[in-house]
Amino acid sequence: MTILIADDATENVALLSRILKMSGYNVQAAADGDQVVAYAKASPPDLILLDVNMPGMDGFEACRRLKEDEGTREIPVIFISALDNIEDKTRAFRSGGVDYILKPFDYEEVQARVETHLVIRGLRIQLEQANQELAARVDELTASRELLAERERKLSAFVKALPNISFIFDEHGRFLEVLANETSLLPAKPDKLLGCLNEDIVPAKVAAVMLDAIRLTIETGKIQIVEYKLPVLAGGERWFEGRLTLMEKDETGHSKIVFVATEITERVQLYQEVQRLANQDVLTGCFNRRHFMALASQEIQRARRYKRPLSLLMLDIDHFKGFNDQYGHQIGDQLLCHLVNLCLKQLRNVDIMGRYGGEEFVIMMPETARDGALRAAERLQEKIRKLVIDTSQGELSVTVSMGLASLDRGFDESQDLDLVIRHADQALYAAKNAGRDCVRMSSP
After folding, report:
1. Domain 2-118 homologous superfamily, CATH
2. Domain spanning 137-268: which CATH class is it, in words?
3. What is the pLDDT of residues 308-342, one digit of tens each?
């Protein structure tokens, strides 16, 4: 087997080469990301050890390009890096890596991880070859039960070698076999699963997703991947990634599907947290400007498509600079957080609030015409007037100026988010000129 090592540090390449050659592997070396991609396409190795930081194209981009190419996407990539933080590990796995080894590395760990992923790759290749042979020789396999039994034993050994849980389903989603080293991750005990339909065990939505994937696997013969969440014997709910492969299919329509489930709860939670941090304003907890603009653009498009009313409220804290100068930025931040919390409690579930600038916020109100939006804005302003904030400087309060713009039914296609924001901003300017602590509406 051939292993491609990509690292611009020659001493690392030399050390890894010695380790791997001692284990009987052929070794190739590349000094940067461009060489990795070129070598892999010209002569695909069985596995790639890829450094993250390299001159030119880094390891993340090199891995991403390999996974985009049909000829190299199945090559397992193990990242090797001195970077021990969640962000880099997340990028590594999201770009297509199968493992992540920290520098300085232990040679026994490198050998063990390389061997594990080569075994899994070899078993996956064997399974794909077995399926190809099965499709090409279906008549012979039907007549030869002994050969079919041999294939099933190989498949069973393959499934058992994979992490977590493996199932064999029939075309209706019935549990035929359950192979689990960790039964606490099952939705029920193995003896309770056998012979039961998936829809009788797992929640209806999850069962529908699985059954659709089973049918698509049978129809196309291609591997299907699904993500789902369900309650397990260990308690609570866990996230899983399911990979479905066609095991057999006869002329009468009877089929068997191999379903390999890997728990990915930690990965999903990490991704959700990254998404939350990317979309929320760090201080106040409402949406940041970028994410608000994306969501508001979708609402504008929906309103235009279905000719539905929509309003946008822009609010600015009156004399906030003076407030900061008098009481300090820490209390100013406290004020912003209390104000946003109050607004979020008053808004509907469909309303969208974002931080537009320092002390300027925007609220998108779908399905809300001018009159309804004005009433909502006045109610919100009255609540803000009554807001009392307990601080180290005593009890403080603020007022806000508001500008409102609306799109009612019959508006034309030229009206977009930028136009609505511009009209709301003009109305806000009018509210400030009118003495602040009031609401002003833009012209229809």
Report:
1. Response regulator (3.40.50.2300)
2. alpha beta
3. 899 999 999 999 998 888 999 999 999 999 999 99
Provide the residue ranges of all domains of the chain, joining segments of one domain with +. 2-118, 137-268, 280-441
Residue type, 219: E
For residues 374 and 441, the answer to whether their CB atoms sit within 8 Å is yes
Q: Do 268 and 239 form a contact (C-beta atoms < 8 A)?
A: yes
361: tokens are 């916020």
Q: 359, 375, 365, 370: which is closest to 436 by C-alpha?
A: 359
- This prediction has a pTM of 0.48
**Do residues 241 and 261 lie in contact, with contact meaning Cβ atoms separated by under 8 Å?**
yes
Q: So which residues are the catalytic ones?
A: 359
Burial grade of 78 (CB within 10 A; 0-12, 13-18, 19 or more): buried
Q: What is the pLDDT of residue 136?
A: 75
State how beta strands 237-249 and 224-231 pair: antiparallel
Assign 3-class secondary structure to the chain: CEEEEECCCHHHHHHHHHHHHHCCCEEEEECCHHHHHHHHHHCCCCEEEEECCCCCCCHHHHHHHHHHCCCCCCCCEEEEECCCCHHHHHHHHHCCCCEEEECCCCHHHHHHHHHHHHHHHHHHHHHHHHHHHHHHCHHHHHHCHHHHHHHHHHHHHHHHHCCCEEEEEECCCEEEEEEECCHHHCCCCHHHHCCCEHHHCCCHHHHHHHHHHHHHHHHHCCCEEEEEEEECCCCCEEEEEEEEEEEEECCCCCEEEEEEEEECHHHHHHHHHHHHHHHECCCCCCECHHHHHHHHHHHHHHHHHHCCCEEEEEEEECCHHHHHHHHCHHHHHHHHHHHHHHHHHHCCCCCEEEECCCCEEEEEEECCCHHHHHHHHHHHHHHHHCCCEEECCEEECCCEEEEEEEECCCCCCCCCHHHHHHHHHHHHHHHHHCCCCCEEECCC
Task: Report the CATH architecture of 280-441.
Answer: 2-Layer Sandwich (3.30)
Q: Using CA atoms, how far apart are residues 281 and 411, in angstroms rounded to an integer?
A: 32
Work out the percent of the chain whose per-residue pLDDT is above 90. 46
Give the model's pLDDT for residue 158: 64
Peptide bond before 444: cis, by omega within 30 degrees of 0?
no
Q: Which residue in 391, 396, 393 sits closest to 318, CA to CA?
A: 396
Confidence tier at 163 by pLDDT (50, 70, 90): low
